[in-house]
Amino acid sequence: MSERILIIEDEENIARVLQLELEFEGYITGIAYSGTDGLITYREQEWDLVLLDLMLPGLPGLDVLRRIRADDRAVPVILLTAKNSVEDKVAGLDLGANDYVTKPFQMEELLARIRANLRMKKHEHNHEVEEVDDKFNHLYRDLTLHEQTREVKRKERKIDLTPREFDLLLHLMKHPNQVLSREQLLDSVWGYHYYGETNVVDVYIRYLRKKIDFNETHKYIQTVRGVGYVLKEQIDEVKN
Ligand code: CA
Question: Could you say which of 1.10.10.10, 1.10.1040.10, 1.10.357.10, 3.40.50.300 is the CATH number of the domain covering 138-235?
Fold first, then answer.
């Protein structure tokens, strides 16, 4: 069955081009030209993914995102952001957007991200079903972490982690495919009252990578430049 993508974008030319391209790829699309209409359309129908512009008339994009997330934790949302709006990107990711592309974007890049996010949504759904039996067991692809036994494995390879590395990985695994800023990771893993440098996060990510991804073809811990980190299977590098 075709997947349904909602485009919330006030620039009609961009919205139309997106619609044409997506329908050519076999998706079913809907367009809303303002934040308010976007939210109404979102709630009226079932959507598999949302493309959300941030600068919108009516309700601003971030407010649309906040309300979508309040209704539905799972639907992938990809932000369409202007260049030089790092704050908006970070705010959007903090509010639970899954990904973003910067305008002007390459259609191929956007299509690759749409495919990746739709694929991960399906994958997570399958895992949710498997995980019902054991809520302390976290899975990501071939990576498993048991919260109580503190056992971490990649396939059959046992991985020894320090307590801090373990907590960091646990946090990443509880939010797969979600970009987490250094500040978020500091708050969640080091505690709210940690006043140290945020580069302690970079250091620990490096340790984790060595243990998790070293010598593996599929890397799971990704850097989102200028923003933070995400647990996500690496997809082919797309040129900007
Ligand atoms: Ca706009």
Answer: 1.10.10.10
- Taking the centre of ligand 1 as the mean of its atom positions, its distance from the CA of residue 18, in whole angstroms, is 14
pLDDT in tens, the chain (240 residues): 789 999 999 999 999 999 999 999 999 999 999 999 999 999 999 999 999 999 999 999 999 999 998 887 789 999 998 877 788 888 888 888 998 898 888 999 999 999 989 988 777 766 555 444 466 788 998 999 998 888 999 988 999 998 889 999 999 999 999 999 998 898 888 876 666 677 889 999 999 999 999 888 889 999 998 899 999 988 544 444
Q: How far is the CA of 240 from the centre of ligand 1 (A)?
A: 20
What is the b/e burial string over 71-86, where b = at least 16 CB atoms within 10 angstroms of the residue's CB? eeeebbbbbbbeeebe
Domain boundaries defined on the chain: 4-134, 138-235
Burial of 135 (0-12, 13-18, 19+ CB in 10 A): exposed
- How many angstroms is it from 169 CA to the middle of ligand 1? 36
Residue 154 Cα to ligand 1 midpoint, Å, equals 43
Name which CATH class applies to 4-134: alpha beta
pTM: 0.55
Residue 36 alpha carbon to ligand 1 centre in Å: 13
- Between the CA of 15 and the centroid of ligand 1 the distance, in Å, is 10
Radius of gyration of the chain (CA): 19
Instruction: State in Å: Cα 4 to ligand 1 middle.
Output: 21
**Domains 4-134 and 138-235 equal at CATH topology level:** no
